[in-house]
Write a structure and sequence with these properties.
This protein is mainly α. 80% of the residues lie in helices and 0% in strands. The protein folds into 2 domains: 38 residues, no CATH class; 36 residues.
């Protein structure tokens, strides 16, 4: 059995034993800990970085398909 298989099986067992609420609770606790340790500005910063990355990906897709600045809509 590979490490990947063992991890998947362990995750499936936890999910079946503890359910969806367990994951919501540990996610909430983790988020509260991060907010307490790093402050609300951390979330603003990572949200901004995520938005910038999405913008970059959209522009790259437009250039790839010939819809970027200076193109005439032809690939």
């Amino acid at each position: 059995m590979t490490v990947q298989e063992a991890g998947r099986l362990g995750g499936e067992k936890v999910a079946s034993e503890r359910g969806h609420d367990f994951y919501e609770n540990i996610g909430r606790k983790g988020g509260q800990t991060v907010a307490r340790e790093r402050g609300p500005s951390f979330y603003s910063e990572i949200g901004h970085k995520g938005g910038q990355r999405v913008r970059e990906l959209i522009e790259a897709g437009k250039r790839l398909h010939g819809h970027g600045p200076g193109s005439h809509g032809t690939p």
